[in-house]
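Sequence in, structure out. Go.
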Amino acid sequence: MYEVEQEAKHIAQLLPQEGDELILKAVRFDEKHSSIGWAVIFSSGTTIGTGKKGILLVPERSLKIIDQLSNPIPYEIIPLDQLANQPPESSHPY
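Output:
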């Protein structure tokens, strides 16, 4: 996991910083990729909780970092209008 986090930090240094207006996406990872996915997301920049189990709002920049990894981590984008239908967070999802 350390190597992936280091690669993500390197990619983050090459990308422009987050601007004043963030374009956010609701994201979740499957169980297999959850630990590494959240580690990369948390080290890549801004995250905002949704109150929904395993789903955070992240800027597009963070998703670009994941997509540019040598072994990209699969994630699912949840349409914002469907967040209300997701189960509430009952325990720490990470």
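Check: The first strand starts at residue 24 and ends at 28. Residues 2-14 form the longest helix (13 residues).
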